[in-house]
What we know:
Blueprint: E1 4-8, H1 12-23, E2 27-32, H2 48-51, E3 53-56, E4 59-63, H3 70-75, E5 79-83, H4 90-93, E6 97-100, E7 117-121, E8 126-127, E9 133-135, E10 146-147, E11 150-151, E12 170-172, E13 177-181, E14 188-189, E15 194-198, E16 201-204, E17 209-214, E18 220-221, E19 226-231, H5 243-264
Parallel strand pairs: 1-2, 1-6, 2-5, 4-5, 6-7, 7-9
Antiparallel strand pairs: 3-4, 8-11, 9-10, 12-19, 13-15, 13-18, 14-17, 15-16, 17-19
Helix pairs in contact: 1-5
Amino acid sequence: MNDIVVVRGGGDLATGVIQKLYRAGLRVVILEDPKPTAIRRTVSLCDCVWDGTAQVEDMTAVMVQTPAECEAVWRREQIPLLVDPSAQSLKLLRPVGMVDAILAKHNLGTNSAMAPVVIAMGPGFTAPEDAHAVVETMRGHNLGRVYFEGAALPNTGIPGVIGNRSAERVLRAPCAGTIRHHKQIGDLVEKGEVIFSVEGQAVTAPFTGLLRGLLREDLEVFPDMKAADIDPRLDSDWHTISDKARCIGGGVLEAYLYLRRRIAL
Length: 265
């Protein structure tokens, strides 16, 4: 199968989806913002916006300037990334599939007319009106489930429980300004240690754990913006795609292959 599939978003969960599509032999293109705000940067292909390339497991994403450059990247078995938050390049790419993996918790303009197969992740979408399928992103029994009618569970605003920790896992910006690092992703941090600061206001670890996510230094943040993620599991692997991302990726690939077969009938 040589289909082109556009994935809007290149964060950590989107990267798990991209891996499934990439390994299935699809020609994937990532569309991103000019300043992506992924926290789990070591497992987010969107980081190539800053550096030109990004490597996550067996995948390499390469920044391109135009849709015409994608073909050469695919020939190298790599994944092109375009800065195109409004998805204007769809007209030139003419993909068979499009996946909304932005995870904004609401619809930023995706609709089922954007490609023959449109799949959306998480709350804010209803199938088949907004997308031909919606994939569940909330941890629990239905994680990765595909809905061909209806919507994913509504956003609770509360992070899933990991190691008996939930909301306290996520550290937020105390004010507007520029983020400065005091620790790095992969560091083991003790309760009370300063993780980052914004305009001189320090944010400390609420418990001992492994720092698996941290916004890029020098980014401009707004008050209460998600800025870091501490995992209470000290042996957590921050180099590889998470179990949640792999599960959601499996749901997206299932939805794509099912819908693609129906188109071919």
